[in-house]
Specification:
heterodimer, A: about 210 residues, alpha/beta, 10-stranded mixed β-sheet, 4 helices, about 15% helix, about 25% strand, B: about 230 residues, Glutaconate Coenzyme A-transferase, 9-stranded mixed β-sheet, 3-stranded antiparallel β-sheet, 6 helices
Chain lengths: ~210, ~230
């Protein structure tokens, strides 16, 4: 299709706009890690990593990597001045106890009720791995999903009911895609923003769940 | 009893890695600290491989990375079952082969449930209700309860016979401090096992660890051994 789409960097930039000063935030593995690149330098945001750190900083300079200082994706990171280390029980209490303001997750599918599927394709030969996804999906005060609107073969990833195994039920608050920003509301999915030049009708045609106009 | 100097004092330090793991029997449940390779007690795992215990049930966040540590224990076919949250990774080929060959049992548990199940064992909790996993494949067959309008799943503690963990420094009472994100599961696993064995970079004299910053108090640690002679 020849629709105008946000690039991945533009999606990350759009998510970053919704991360407020002072927020405690967990960025999931993969696409969501890009969001950190677009947080303004003058905005203090506390990045949490499930393996036990708050105040996560950027990737270290080459040669400065420390194998004892990694993120959830097991990549080397740094600690900001004022950051802290803690054990896994505390780290997941931060999620599960509702202390994180925002988490940003990737997804295979999101349903119109905000159900999330992002851990398992359900394929019989797949080795399942869940990590912290289920805890993040239910624990953070706001759950943002960041993903392509459609699969590579053009199927909508925003659906009436998830066909993939669920990560959590009714847990997603906002969805950022290459076509739009959508809010999960009690009445259904409401369009908050659309890619420039895209019409509501075109967006609806690309989405298998019904949408509410802005 | 108020003296901390002299002969016949409590000394949890072991001379060698081999002796520290010598009594781990076949069929034991062994917690292994670490998140990926950060905090992985590879020296203790190597000693356990040499010791020969088999049919082990292992509790770890992952299922081995690359060739060392837990991956080497899996490769040596010493593990009957693994309880973990994130087995499949780019470099988990030894686990992948065992799993696809039907040679290992997998109990997959969300990472927060894994941590809380370990912590619960250490704190004497018989079970707990958590919303994590409700309505998913990982809660199938488990008791659920509606509490204040929210759905919860009953999860059980994970007890272990041994915990092998890695810390930065320890003393003869078993007090430990860790290094950066290598801390991860160490403190809660130390609480949950009957016998906790800590591999440390340095054994320091009693009193050298600041009591205000000791992360794992020695009551949770039975053996301390230096990772390299």
């Amino acid at each position: 299709m020849s629709m105008n789409r946000y690039t991945r960097d533009q999606i990350a930039q759009r998510v970053a706009k919704d991360i407020f000063e002072g927020a405690y935030v967990n960025l999931g593995i993969g696409l969501p890690t890009k969001v950190a690149n677009f947080l303004p330098a003058d905005r203090e945001v506390f990045l949490h990593s499930e393996n036990g750190l708050l105040g996560m900083g950027p990737v270290p300079e080459p040669g400065e990597e420390d194998e004892d200082l990694i993120n959830a994706g097991k990549q080397p990171v740094t600690l900001l001045t004022g950051g802290a280390y803690f054990h896994h029980g505390d780290s997941f209490a931060m999620m599960r106890g509702g202390h994180l303001d925002i988490c940003v997750l990737g997804a295979f599918q999101v349903s119109e009720k905000g159900d999330l599927a992002n851990w398992h394709t359900g394929a019989s030969d797949a080795i399942p791995a869940v990590g912290g996804a289920m805890d993040l999906a239910l624990g953070a005060k706001k759950v943002f999903v960041m993903m392509d609107h459609q699969t590579k073969s053009g199927e909508s990833k925003i659906v009436r009911l998830c066909s993939y195994p669920l990560t959590g039920m009714s847990c997603v608050n906002r969805i950022y895609t290459d076509l739009a920003v959508l809010d999960v509301t009690p009445n259904g999915l409401r369009v908050a923003e659309m890619a420039p030049g895209l019409t509501f009708e075109e967006l609806q045609a690309a989405t298998s769940a019904p949408l509410l106009a802005p | 009893m108020w003296s901390t100097e002299g002969e016949n004092m409590i000394d949890k330090t072991f001379e060698s890695l081999e002796r520290a793991v010598a009594d781990v029997p076949d069929g034991a449940t062994v917690m292994i600290g670490g998140f990926g390779n950060a905090g992985m007690p590879s020296a203790l795992i190597n000693a356990l491989i040499a010791q020969g215990a088999r049919e082990l049930t292992i509790v770890n966040n992952n299922a081995g990375n690359g060739e060392t540590g837990l991956a080497a224990l899996l490769k040596a076919k010493r593990v009957r079952k693994i309880i973990c949250s994130f087995p499949r990774q780019a470099d988990s080929h030894h686990f992948d082969a065992l799993y696809r060959g039907g040679e290992i049992e997998l109990e997959l548990t969300p990472q927060g449930n894994l941590a809380e199940r370990i912590r619960a064992a250490g704190a004497g909790i018989g079970g707990f209700f958590t919303p994590t996993g409700y309505g998913t494949l990982l809660a199938e067959g488990k008791e659920t309860r509606l509490i204040d309008g929210r759905h919860y799943v009953l999860e059980s503690p994970i007890h272990a016979d041994y915990a092998l963990i890695k810390a930065l420094r320890g003393d003869r009472w078993g007090n430990l401090v860790y290094r950066k994100t290598a801390r991860n599961f160490g403190p809660i696993m130390a609480m949950a096992a009957k016998t906790t064995i800590a591999q440390v970079s340095d054994i320091v004299p009693l009193g050298e660890l600041d009591p205000e910053v000791i992360v794992t108090p020695g009551i949770f640690v039975q053996r301390v051994v230096k990772e390299a002679a």
